[in-house]
Amino acid sequence: MTEPSGETAPEAPEDVEPTEDARENARGAEPAQDAEDPGAAPGADSEDPGEVRETTASEEPGVPPEGAAEESGDPGAAVAGGADTPELSDAQAELAAQRELRARIEARKADKEGPLASGAKLSGTAADLLAAVRAVEGGAASGSTFYEAPEPAPRRPAPEAAPAMTVRPPVPAQASAPAPGTTAAVREVLAKGGAPETLAAQVAAALGENAADALLADPWALLAVAGVRPEQADGFARALLGAACGPDDPRRTVALTVWLLERAALQGHTALEVQAVRAGLAGHAVPDPGSAVEEAVSAGAVLVFQEEETAREETEEDEEEPAEAVAEEPASPVLLGLDRYALAEESLADGLARLVRTATADAWEGSELTRATGACGLVLHTGGEASRAEPVALASAARERGLRALVAVHADGGRRAPGLAGTDAVTVAALLSGTAGPGRDEEGALALDLLVVLDAPQLDVETAAMLVESLPDGCRLVLSGDPEVLGAPGAGRVFADVLAARVCPRIASRLPDPGPLGELVSGIGAGELNQVEAPGKEIVIVPVRDAGEAVHRAVQLVADSVPRAIGVPSEQTQVVTVGHGGSAGTRALNAALKERLNPGPGRFGGYDPGDRVAYAPVPGRTVTGSVLSADAEGLRLRCGDEELVVPRERVESALRHGWALTAHQAAGARWPAVVVVLPGDAAGGLSRPWVYTAFGRAERHLSVVHGVDQALARAVAEGVAPERTTRLRPLLETLLATPEE
Question: Percent of the chain at pLDDT above 70?
């Protein structure tokens, strides 16, 4: 692989912005920057951060700053008609399953005794916070939201033995829509505050039946709506309250604290250090950030944690040494978090410990992975694309033993893993929603003896908790994946945390990825951008001078060069770029690719039959497919072997064109040919995991539209993705402590 010459100074990444796909798919961040990873190049998106930009796929419309004008319209208005009582969609089923699971987790925790060990021993700052939050620490208040705070359950320590009965998530129930009267009342309040009335349905869904009264009493409750920024909520509050509000209003500071933690979740964090939260509040003109944090915790809006430190046994040598000679280790940081993610991490840790404790050790003959799986209820398997064949073979061998075994993948494209042809494999989302898989028993557990999960790094903490809670006692779980790829688009770093905890067998595959593409990607994983011989044109570098040329060459490659020279048709070629915004982001590339490959007026909510699309049924999960037609129910898509309907009210927020994706959206899937577009303004968004993930999506051919000069090589050598702050690792270490390996 040959790199163009030239020097370009690398841009320092910023670690304070949510990922681009979190902004697009989770729809909860301020639309100020459009790089996929934190640290996107300044200027990657030409839109003014101070204005509400045009709503794009997977983004929710925001509220404009006070006095700003905003267009209104019916999302997907071109989709004719609408059903009065639509059937339950996949998205509704998944969201309902998540809500039901959280309720069951809380109920299960209520049956246990004792306080949570984490946070029990506080000192210094933590002790000061504890004085203000005795109710929270004792379990008398919840921290998931300060708008609708359910009565929480007491938190418990790790059990000595696996529970005899595990509460299982039920079959998803239909999600309830806001009552028309509630939406109408919210619309009046929004109009009074100068906010777009088109937000009424979102506000009603976020704040519940009494949403209008909640807004009147606390205008900053508007921050609970995805896409709304603090300055916009401030303008709304001023319109409603006038001089009665200020920057230190407790309602404002509590809402901002929750908003900062929700925004951090879009970066992958399940908690934040208290200093980071204080700094964020100070950046939004809160006069006393310390008091604001205490107010938020005492109000039950957030939870405070400090992991216990393991006491060190004193020895005779220690007693002989003077006290001042023994260096004190720094205390664990004080963390703030939302109970949504705290419950998920605690439930996941408990569930993994349950699987380990209830699995009966057995001597299985076979490979190292097979033997480890027979001996333990939880096994981790790492390796590249070729190594996926090993856990697939494990599942097949388990079926021959008479066990109920299943392989689950992150995306439909993951079913094309080596050895999966003709094998019963389902997506994790379909397994949890009940649309695929073995079904559940009378307790709600999946009828399985072994579950193999491929693409495990793509599991966010909430999905992983749902999955583990759904497994019966004694079931074996194998998490398999490549630790070098980009992490989950949602909150948490499940696979990395379990690996780091060293609480179960870890099997590293020795099976290398074949061919020039395998050699290139393996080198990137080791921090080297090697020159690779590609006699069959497996790898092609296309140098460009600017973003406009990058878009032109990408379209030319997809529409002409790759089909003609490589033999891969356009519909099997995927474009991957760094971000959604900018002159060569997914928006610009999709517009150009549609004009070339499927021109049309966009008569169905901006889409035409034959358009390639990316659909986000729930935040953090992207399904690719093509448009079939539109009817009274909504827009009909073909996604893999399935047909699904996107309700007309979700067309604008959850759907976007999909000829070009970001690397986060593409993770977990592969295509015969991939065109990676690297315009000059994307250099700051590159990291080794991003390059590894993007280049690794290609099966037969990779074209790199290269405009970042030496920034690519520097990103591979030095570009480490920002760490995520999570609590799963210490929770697992406490529950499943083992001697050092």
Answer: 71
User: How far apart are the C-alpha atoms of 330 and 332, rounded to whole Å?
Assistant: 7
Give the burial class of 552: count Cβ atoms within 10 A of its Cβ; 0-12 exposed, 13-18 middle, 19 or more buried. middle
β partners of residue 706? 543, 678
Write the DSSP symbol of residue 683: G
| pLDDT score of 7 more than 90 | no
Locate the DSSP E strands across 586-715: 612-618, 621-630, 634-639, 642-647, 655-657, 660-662, 671-678, 698-706
Burial class for 595, CB neighbours closer than 10 Å (0-12, 13-18, 19+): exposed
pLDDT for residue 629 is more than 70: yes
Residue 733 to residues 118, 499, 503, 728, 737, Cα–Cα distance (Å): 12, 11, 7, 9, 5
Helix, strand, coil % in the chain, rounded to nearest 5: 40, 15, 45
Tell me if 12 sits within 8 A of 39, measured CB to CB: yes
pLDDT for residue 89:
55
**Which of 69, 24, 31 is closest to 50 using CA atoms?**
31
Beta-carbon neighbour count of residue 120 at 10 Å? 16
User: Running DSSP on this structure, what letter comes out for residue 326?
Assistant: S
**Taking the model in full, what pTM does it have?**
0.76
How many C-beta neighbours within 10 Å does residue 46 have? Answer: 11
Q: What is the pLDDT of residues 356-394, one digit of tens each?
A: 999 999 999 999 999 999 999 999 999 998 999 999 999
| pLDDT of residue 735 exceeding 80 | yes
Residue pLDDT, tens place only, 396-431: 999 999 999 999 998 877 666 666 655 678 989 889
SS3 225: coil
Please give the Cα distance from 428 to 453 (Å, whole number).
8
> Which of 453, 695, 450, 731 minimizes the C-alpha distance to 574?
695
**Dihedral angle of Cα 421, 424, 429, 435, to the nearest 10 degrees:** 130
What is the Cα gyration radius of the chain? 26
Sheet holding 573-577, edge to edge: 539-543, 698-706, 671-678, 573-577, 660-662
Residue type, 256: L
pLDDT tens figures, 419-467: 665 567 898 988 998 888 898 888 889 999 999 999 999 999 999 999 9
The token duo for 182 is 């509630």
The three state secondary structure string of 15-68 is CCCCCHHHHHHHCCCCCCCCECCCCCCCCCCCCCCCCCCCCCCCCCCCCCCCCC
User: For residue 606, is it left (φ>0), alpha (ψ between -120 and 50) or beta?
Assistant: left
Place of tokens 């209830």: 358
CA distance 157 to 583: 52
Q: Which residues are registered as beta bridge partners of 675?
A: 575, 703
Task: Please give the full DSSP string across 87-145, using - where no structure is assigned.
Answer: PPPHHHHHHHHHHHHHHHHHHHHHTS-S--STTSS--THHHHHHHH-HHHHTTSS--S-
Overall average pLDDT of the 109-129 stretch:
45
- Dist CA 317 CA 295 (whole Å): 46
Instruction: Name the band, by pLDDT with cuts 50, 70 and 90, for residue 96.
Output: low
pLDDT of residue 346: 96
Helix ranges (H only) for 138-249 are 180-192, 200-207, 211-217, 230-241
pLDDT of residue 675: 98
| Burial class (CB within 10 angstroms; exposed 0-12, middle 13-18, buried 19+) of 328 | exposed
Contact 47, 31 (CB under 8 A): yes
- How far is CA 474 from each of CA 101, 208, 457, 468, rounded to the nearest angstrom? 21, 40, 24, 12
| Distance, CA of 143 to chain centre | 21
Mean pLDDT of the chain: 78
